[in-house]
Write a structure and sequence with these properties.
Chain A is built from one helix and five strands. Chain A is mostly beta strands. Chain A has a single domain (2-82), classed as EutN/Ccml (OB fold (Dihydrolipoamide Acetyltransferase, E2P), Beta Barrel). Chain B has one domain: OB fold (Dihydrolipoamide Acetyltransferase, E2P), CATH 2.40.50. The chains are: A mainly beta (99), B mainly beta (88).
Chain lengths: 99, 88
Amino acid sequence: MHLGRVIGTVVATERTPDLDGVKFLIVQPLTRDLKDRGRPVIAADGVAMAGPGELIYFVGSREAAQAMPEPFVPVDHAVVGIVDQLTVDPLPRKRKAKK
Amino acid sequence: MKIARVAGTVVSTFNAPIFDHQRLLLCDYLTPGGEATGDYVIAVDVVDAGAGETVLILDEGTGARQIMGEEVAPIRAVIVGIIDEIDA
């Protein structure tokens, strides 16, 4: 899973029936230091709570569909959690000598 | 599987049920030599890994669900071991 920021929503009325009721979010993937990383993706909202501006974590590939109530749906990214608190150590420049 | 170092924690209240009462750790992937690759992953900790420890990450859905004992769950990355030593 990776960190992401919800930057918008997508509405699609005509959709495959499997996707009825699924909310789509535009998610900007982030690095560990919360900088933008690559292009935004459209992710299904697996927690049904995420909204624009929120820091979230998302899962990609086949596992994304399993965040949905019906697990066999055509979804390739899904928001699976809203981040309340994030603590990250700074990335060390060089690793210390081996003990 | 991949080598990583535990760099931080992620806390969430609203999440997929599989993550309830689980520790989510942010881990930096490492080269075998111990340098950070720049890539990272958020993984479920099932081995009680601590901050700064070098760990073994499984990033594959079926194996992850097997570890968690769930047939259907949106989970892929799990910390499956704490590395004592790498001889590279």
